[in-house]
Write a structure and sequence with these properties.
About 25% of the residues are buried. The chain has two domains: about 1-70, no CATH class; about 70-134, no CATH class. The chain is about 50% helix and about 0% strand. The chain has helices spanning about 1-5, 10-15, 20-30, 50-70, 85-100, 105-115, 120-125. By secondary structure, the chain is mainly alpha-helical. It starts with a helix and ends in a 10-residue tail after the last helix.
Protein backbone atom coordinates (compact mmCIF):
# COMPACT_ATOMS: atom_id res chain seq x y z
CA UNK A 1 0.00 0.00 0.00
CA UNK A 2 2.86 2.35 0.67
CA UNK A 3 3.96 1.83 -2.92
CA UNK A 4 0.49 2.90 -4.10
CA UNK A 5 0.67 6.07 -2.04
CA UNK A 6 4.23 6.82 -3.16
CA UNK A 7 3.77 6.10 -6.87
CA UNK A 8 0.23 7.50 -6.93
CA UNK A 9 -1.10 5.66 -10.03
CA UNK A 10 -4.01 7.25 -11.88
CA UNK A 11 -6.81 5.71 -9.77
CA UNK A 12 -5.19 6.91 -6.56
CA UNK A 13 -4.38 10.35 -7.95
CA UNK A 14 -7.81 10.75 -9.51
CA UNK A 15 -10.07 9.34 -6.80
CA UNK A 16 -8.27 9.72 -3.46
CA UNK A 17 -10.21 12.89 -2.69
CA UNK A 18 -13.52 11.67 -4.08
CA UNK A 19 -16.45 11.17 -1.73
CA UNK A 20 -17.70 8.33 -3.93
CA UNK A 21 -15.05 6.01 -2.50
CA UNK A 22 -16.39 6.48 1.04
CA UNK A 23 -18.85 3.59 0.71
CA UNK A 24 -16.07 1.09 -0.09
CA UNK A 25 -13.85 2.50 2.64
CA UNK A 26 -16.65 2.35 5.20
CA UNK A 27 -17.53 -1.22 4.23
CA UNK A 28 -13.92 -2.40 4.60
CA UNK A 29 -13.58 -0.65 7.95
CA UNK A 30 -16.97 -1.76 9.23
CA UNK A 31 -18.25 1.81 9.59
CA UNK A 32 -21.17 3.88 8.31
CA UNK A 33 -20.59 5.78 5.08
CA UNK A 34 -23.20 8.34 6.17
CA UNK A 35 -20.67 10.71 7.72
CA UNK A 36 -18.92 13.83 6.50
CA UNK A 37 -15.30 13.58 5.36
CA UNK A 38 -14.24 15.52 8.45
CA UNK A 39 -15.68 12.73 10.64
CA UNK A 40 -13.89 9.86 8.85
CA UNK A 41 -10.77 9.97 11.06
CA UNK A 42 -13.12 8.69 13.77
CA UNK A 43 -13.25 5.42 11.83
CA UNK A 44 -9.78 4.68 13.21
CA UNK A 45 -10.85 4.71 16.84
CA UNK A 46 -9.13 6.51 19.73
CA UNK A 47 -5.86 4.52 19.71
CA UNK A 48 -5.56 2.71 16.37
CA UNK A 49 -3.18 -0.22 16.14
CA UNK A 50 -0.63 -0.55 13.36
CA UNK A 51 -2.86 -3.14 11.70
CA UNK A 52 -5.87 -0.81 11.87
CA UNK A 53 -3.84 1.98 10.26
CA UNK A 54 -2.73 -0.42 7.52
CA UNK A 55 -6.32 -1.50 6.98
CA UNK A 56 -7.34 2.14 6.70
CA UNK A 57 -4.63 2.74 4.08
CA UNK A 58 -5.87 -0.30 2.18
CA UNK A 59 -9.45 0.95 2.39
CA UNK A 60 -8.51 4.27 0.78
CA UNK A 61 -6.52 2.56 -2.01
CA UNK A 62 -9.29 -0.01 -2.59
CA UNK A 63 -11.90 2.74 -2.71
CA UNK A 64 -9.87 4.56 -5.36
CA UNK A 65 -9.46 1.50 -7.56
CA UNK A 66 -13.07 0.40 -7.12
CA UNK A 67 -14.16 3.88 -8.22
CA UNK A 68 -11.88 3.66 -11.27
CA UNK A 69 -13.21 0.28 -12.43
CA UNK A 70 -16.87 0.76 -11.53
CA UNK A 71 -17.79 1.41 -15.16
CA UNK A 72 -19.60 -1.69 -16.40
CA UNK A 73 -17.56 -1.59 -19.61
CA UNK A 74 -14.41 -2.45 -17.62
CA UNK A 75 -15.30 -6.11 -17.94
CA UNK A 76 -15.97 -6.03 -21.70
CA UNK A 77 -13.59 -6.41 -24.60
CA UNK A 78 -16.14 -6.47 -27.45
CA UNK A 79 -17.32 -2.82 -27.47
CA UNK A 80 -14.77 -0.87 -25.48
CA UNK A 81 -15.04 2.74 -24.48
CA UNK A 82 -12.28 5.04 -25.72
CA UNK A 83 -10.37 4.74 -22.42
CA UNK A 84 -11.18 1.11 -21.62
CA UNK A 85 -7.65 -0.27 -22.19
CA UNK A 86 -6.28 2.08 -19.52
CA UNK A 87 -9.12 1.25 -17.13
CA UNK A 88 -8.63 -2.50 -17.67
CA UNK A 89 -4.89 -2.08 -17.06
CA UNK A 90 -5.62 -0.37 -13.74
CA UNK A 91 -8.20 -3.05 -12.93
CA UNK A 92 -5.67 -5.75 -13.73
CA UNK A 93 -3.09 -4.24 -11.38
CA UNK A 94 -5.68 -3.90 -8.60
CA UNK A 95 -7.06 -7.43 -9.02
CA UNK A 96 -3.55 -8.93 -9.11
CA UNK A 97 -2.79 -7.16 -5.84
CA UNK A 98 -5.98 -8.55 -4.30
CA UNK A 99 -5.06 -12.05 -5.47
CA UNK A 100 -1.64 -11.65 -3.85
CA UNK A 101 -3.49 -10.89 -0.58
CA UNK A 102 -5.51 -14.11 -0.91
CA UNK A 103 -8.61 -12.86 -2.73
CA UNK A 104 -10.36 -15.40 -4.96
CA UNK A 105 -11.43 -13.58 -8.14
CA UNK A 106 -14.60 -14.39 -10.03
CA UNK A 107 -14.34 -15.77 -13.58
CA UNK A 108 -14.97 -12.33 -15.07
CA UNK A 109 -12.24 -10.86 -12.84
CA UNK A 110 -9.85 -13.59 -14.03
CA UNK A 111 -10.63 -12.49 -17.59
CA UNK A 112 -9.52 -8.94 -16.70
CA UNK A 113 -6.39 -10.27 -14.97
CA UNK A 114 -5.52 -12.43 -17.99
CA UNK A 115 -6.59 -9.68 -20.44
CA UNK A 116 -8.90 -11.98 -22.38
CA UNK A 117 -12.53 -11.74 -23.40
CA UNK A 118 -14.94 -13.16 -20.85
CA UNK A 119 -17.15 -15.98 -22.08
CA UNK A 120 -19.85 -16.71 -19.47
CA UNK A 121 -20.88 -19.92 -21.26
CA UNK A 122 -17.36 -21.33 -21.16
CA UNK A 123 -16.85 -20.17 -17.58
CA UNK A 124 -19.95 -21.99 -16.42
CA UNK A 125 -18.35 -25.38 -16.96
CA UNK A 126 -14.85 -24.33 -15.81
CA UNK A 127 -13.31 -25.03 -19.20
CA UNK A 128 -11.57 -21.73 -19.76
CA UNK A 129 -7.84 -21.35 -19.19
CA UNK A 130 -8.12 -18.07 -17.32
CA UNK A 131 -9.82 -19.81 -14.41
CA UNK A 132 -6.39 -21.14 -13.47
CA UNK A 133 -4.30 -19.17 -10.98
CA UNK A 134 -2.61 -16.02 -12.30
Amino acid sequence: MSIQWLTCPKPVAQWSGDDGRAKVMAEILGRSSQVDAAERPGWLGPKPSASRLTLCDFAVIAGCFEKRIEVVQTWRTDEPLWNLPAIRLDGRAYLKALVSFGYEPTPVEWAVIKDVAFDPNAAADGSVAYLDAA
